[in-house]
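Recall that a protein's primary structure is simply its ordered list of amino acids. Everything else, from secondary elements to tertiary packing, is in principle encoded there. The following example makes that idea concrete.
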Amino acid sequence: MRIAGLASLAAGALVAGLAGCGGSQFTYVRDNEGETYFKVPASWSKVDHKPIQQILYGEDPNSESARMRAQFVWTAAFDGDAASPGAQHFIPLGVKAEEPFVYSVVQPLTEEQRDTMSLNTLRNWVWPVTKSLRDQITQSNPEFPLQNFELLDDEVLEPGDGASGVHVRFNYQLGPTGETHTFDLTGYLNAGNTKVSILLVRCSATCYRQRAAELDGITQSFKIRKSLG
């Protein structure tokens, strides 16, 4: 199923872990061009992002579209589960996942996307947040795995120099009888409307409340250079 924000270009797979010296508490991550960056705890594991691409884009990983994504779009995924880290914890349907997960993507925009970009597009980039899109998706796909949406926070960001952004935090129940999980998304659009940078943090709602300071630190570390793009 296609979800808002998906285009003919998307995610590649190179993460630059920039922890400077041994024993650092964090892994410092930046995209290929060094324009988008954030940090995660050093104990978290980088995991294969390709299964996530299949969930979001619904395409054969051997297709031409997938090859183009890998060529043009940067993606990174980190799992806080030390026992069995993996992409299955991105949206853990039927999988026990008490530890947090981070997904990030930096994507150039097509001309068509540039003409339709808005703050709501950023909000909906990974999962549907606005009511109009949620209604559209549930009507077209009653089996959509995320249910019982709850909006927790929604703010407009002003990084400066013509760039714009949003920060939204929301809950979804994973399936009709599943556990409620909290998703925290920060999205930036550069001044020229040519590139989007997204960070999504996920954890169970209980986990998020208990580890709010740690997870907020990851979210707040997510920045773009003012000259992005």
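The chain has seven helices and eleven strands. Residues 131-140 form the longest helix (10 residues).
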